[in-house]
Amino acid sequence: MMLGAKRIYLLAVLLLLVLLPLGSPALFSDYYLDLFTKVLIFGIMLLGFDILAGYTGLVSLGHALFFGLGGYAAAFTINNLTTNLAPVLLVALAAALIVGLFVGFFSTQTKDIFFVFLTLAFAQFFYLAAFNMTTVTGGDNGISIAKATVGIPGLWIAEVTRPYGFYYLVLLFFVATYFICRRVITSPFGKVLVAIRENDERVSYLGYNIRKMKIKSYIISACLATVAGVLFGAYQDFVSPGMLHWSLSGDLILMSVLGGMGTLVGPVLGGAIIILLGDELSSLTENWMIFIGFFFVLTIIFAPSGVMGIASKIRWWRK
């Protein structure tokens, strides 16, 4: 069976990601392996965010809520119940289902700018709760998390080593998330989501329950952001209200627009560019955010479809 160009590119990228740790420390320091682990964790969250914003057309300014929810679920479960990441993820996903259903139910009653601000309001509520409930969450000081483990209880348990063990664990979750999202958007359900994004009124005439579809999309997106939050909290051994802050939700929008919303690869690429570029610029100047902002403005003006839009135009030019 012949492989298409797109599949060859994706397999090449996957191979590079698998081989990346072999270059450390001979070609680069472990610090860059830490940085790529962060890129992959944000990639998981951006894949989920794109299901909601890019494919359903619901841009949330409060998605950090679920990233922080995953972090705090990891902190409470690891510190009090078990360090095994499997049950930790189950607890976190149960919390994401409950909170996602609640927030999604009310938020999807609105759309456009009203949806944006309602999701922001819910996220700020959780942020302030985490900030002020110092006896439970540690307030601004946050909570330290014990070392996470993986394995089968009673048979085999091992600590997730840094940076190599954690990198491969996160890479495994990232690949699984990509295929889950790909399965969602290529399914009949995913096609309906795209139709809702384009014209939800026409879709309702076809007999689809628009509200139900939007809530499902919101919950899928929330669960993936929560998984990313669990991995980030366990990786940092620390969680704080900063994981719930609205500015993180703004970063998700920036990353998605830069890479290209409505494409699975685009937001992940945008996230990688912002994280890696931000790291390099911050080592050169304290005012690195100015350059990121200028880069973003140029992207909006000259490439509103993002990096993936530029790639599509290049392919068109070559034809």
Q: Would you give an account of this structure?
A:
The chain has 319 residues and is mainly alpha-helical. It has 13 helices and four strands. A two-stranded antiparallel sheet has the order 1-4. Strand 2 and strand 3 form a beta hairpin. Helix 3 packs across helix 9 (210-236). The longest helix has 27 residues, at 210-236. The two termini are 25 Å apart.
Topology at a glance:
Blueprint: H1 5-19, H2 30-55, H3 64-80, H4 85-107, H5 113-132, H6 134-137, E1 143-144, E2 149-152, E3 156-159, H7 164-186, H8 188-205, H9 210-236, E4 238-239, H10 246-259, H11 265-282, H12 288-302, H13 306-318
Antiparallel strand pairs: 1-4, 2-3
Helix pairs in contact: 2-7, 2-9, 2-11, 3-4, 3-9, 4-9, 7-8, 8-9, 10-11, 10-13, 11-12
Transmembrane segments: 35-53, 60-79, 85-106, 113-131, 164-181, 218-235, 255-277, 289-311
Protein name: Branched-chain amino acid ABC transporter permease
Subcellular location: Cell membrane
